[in-house]
TrEMBL record:
Protein name (Swiss-Prot/TrEMBL): Penicillin-binding protein 2
GO cellular component, as recorded: plasma membrane
Any one GO MF annotation of this record: peptidoglycan L,D-transpeptidase activity
Gene Ontology annotations of biological process type: cell wall organization
Domain Penicillin binding protein A dimerisation: 52-134
Domain Penicillin-binding protein transpeptidase stretches: 157-481
InterPro entries tied to this protein: Beta-lactam/transpept, Beta-lactam/transpept-like, PBPA_dimer, PCN-bd_Tpept
Origin organism lineage: Bacteria, Bacillati, Actinomycetota, Actinomycetes, Streptosporangiales
Pfam family, one: PBP_dimer_2
PANTHER family: PENICILLIN-BINDING PROTEIN 4B (PTHR30627:SF24), PEPTIDOGLYCAN D,D-TRANSPEPTIDASE (PTHR30627)
Amino acid sequence: MNKTLKRAAVACLVMFALLMINVNILQAVRAEELSGDSRNTRNYYARYAIERGRIVAGGKVIAQSVETESKKFRFAREYPDAKLYAHVTGFFSPESESAIERSENDLLDGSSADLLLRRSIDLFTGEPTKGANVEVTINPKAQKAAYDALRNSGKRGAVVALDPKTGAILAMVSLPTYDPTELSGTEKGKVFTRYDVLAKDKSQPLLNRTIGQTYPPGSTFKVVTMAAYLEDDSSRGPDTTIEAPQQLPLPNTNISLPNYGGAACGSGQVTLKFALERSCNTPFGKMGLELGYDKMKEQTEKFGMGEQIAVPMSVAQSDFGEKEDQAAVAMASIGQRSNRMTPLQMAMIAAGIGNNGTVMKPYLVNKITDAKGDSVDEAKPEELSQAVSPETAGKLSEMMVSVVNNGTANLAQVPGVQVAGKTGTAESGDRAAPHAWFISFAPAEDPKVALAVIVESGAANVGAEATGGHTAAPIAKAVLEAVLNK
């Protein structure tokens, strides 16, 4: 009998030990795995148990949590003007988030270490935990103007505007857009079905083109080439002359670089100001050849290209391209070849020129406050780089004003305001009409806004002859007027 009891006792001890081992494995080793398992309904319901903080732009609520009548889901996410701000707010779905909803998730759901004091006070007073509120830098008037103007073009594209002096993002519009409410419901089946439809849509409505897509910048990049050329010799200025042949033979090839449409560029010997006004290709190809790849690459890096930037969402890297032959340098110097830029990067270039050569780090989150309105964190503008000297910036500004007043961008003119800008037409490489670009800042003498506009494959009724001056400049004008209250 004693042997039987001993065996039973040993068996119980072994089973207890195995049970404890299993408990420890579940709680310590596999805790994170099990917590993140999509079949864990506790997490699913918990996502909707806390009142997430609001996302606010210019005093306007653009995302908030509202109470529901459901016993399982206490709160649901709501997005006023959903499509207008979709790529700013992002969505909050049963298992994932995007944009600000993702980057600021631990603040919005109240779990951030920065909110420990607030949670402790709430625990002591018995109040439910609430998330922090996120105030973004978006100017609602600028956002609406950009959205309406781009939508009226009938094309895909992007608009991004910055405060040149701080780097604050004033507008961030990407079309086509989507309704984040459809991806933020509590019914998984409906949400996942809708997400699959959007993800498979060839027009890519989920893509934030302002920061997530790179394009050949076309002639807007000529301001970078001009910057490098002026920095290389401080005696050069707007009235310096340069050769501008109708065709520029490319070294070690049997092809030539023509001007747009095969046109002549003045008399063949033009000022730098005239070359930028008319956006001639050959003088800029010639500048690139004279400077060489290394100097061109160095100048692009001074404008922030190649930097890992987060706003706080990650930004795709812009790039001048790998070192090839001289012909490739000439083509890259007019914004083609392997030269690829995000709209945000092009806006940063315009902003840097307008800000006396200093490029500020772009940011989208202005302030964080807790549920009681107390400040948790506030943005502090940071310099990213000194792209060019103030003297060079002044020369570039003068020439870019002339582009708007006398050159290819007259449709960007704003009455009573000196506008600086540069148009661009970039070959897309897929037999579609070229992309239309425009970058700008205003007022030129003391900029309050800098921006970049891209209209993919030009605009309706313009087709292959689309240029930034025809299609992108009027969109920019609408945004400039909104920011400057004109």
